[in-house]
Amino acid sequence: xxxxxxxxxxxxxxxxxxxxxxxxxxxxxxxxxxxxxxxxxxxxxxxxxxxxxxxxxxxxxxxxxxxxxxxxxxxxxxxxxxxxxxxxxxxxxxxxxxxxxxxxxxxxxxxxxxxxxxxxxxxxxxxxxxxxxxxxxxxxxxxxxxxxxxxxxxxxxxxxxxxxxxxxxxxxxxxxxxxxxxxxxxxxxxxxxxxxxxxxxxxxxxxxxxxxxxxxxxxxxxxxxxxxxxxxxxxxxxxxxxxxxxxxxxxxxxxxxxxxxxxxxxxxxxxxxxxxxxxxxxxxxxxxxxxxxxxxxxxxxxxxxxxxxxxxxxxxxxxxx
Length: 321
Hints:
single chain, alpha+beta, six-stranded mixed β-sheet, 37% helix
């Protein structure tokens, strides 16, 4: 079976080779682990955001940026485009922010290929029937405002049962260009996540997927940046899923539940919803974390279903336009 760590390493190697061009910094820790700073002490770049997102997806997706991406005749933003022929593995098996890395004073949400070795969380890998048993290296992307130290790298190595010198940690804050790009790059994953977690649909039946979402404007305030980046997908993300259904699948019902507008808490910018929830993610309807517009092609029946819509007004409100 394909190894998301081995596949992603090809992109990591490219980022290391092109570090100066990409406006990123490479640091070797004293224990041999490699840090790729993509926005903490550096500016990053559009291309760095593209490559970072591809690493998040375990190297199993094409990632591009369209400039501009039209949401309406009067509103356009640069947008991230995702295409994958391994949707469940690339999004849930790798890209999902499923590993809370807490070591000493350091905390970050971890995404990327190393999760498939450590199986964080285990239930996800049971659902998609996947784990990375081939790799002898671990690559993790961290959404954090500070760089990890040797203790963090050793923790990841221990959890993945690899040598610490074979650990690669990519870091980008939410309030950075790369951070904004990689969060919009979760547009397809938000849909597969909701299929599995909120609807209970077997995501292994999704054979191909594509999506596009605007890149949120950068905000130096981390909480406001988190709100804007989530809204880019919730109100501006468009996704396309190609499903091989079984006789007992109600794909029309799946499609109707899938867009963000189907959630109870829909209708306000995410920052406002988060504030009302006292900044507690667990008080928020998980059904909100979904793309704005969904198209599902049932390849078994030939039928196609479209639900949801791009909400330009809410995007403008969120972005301060």
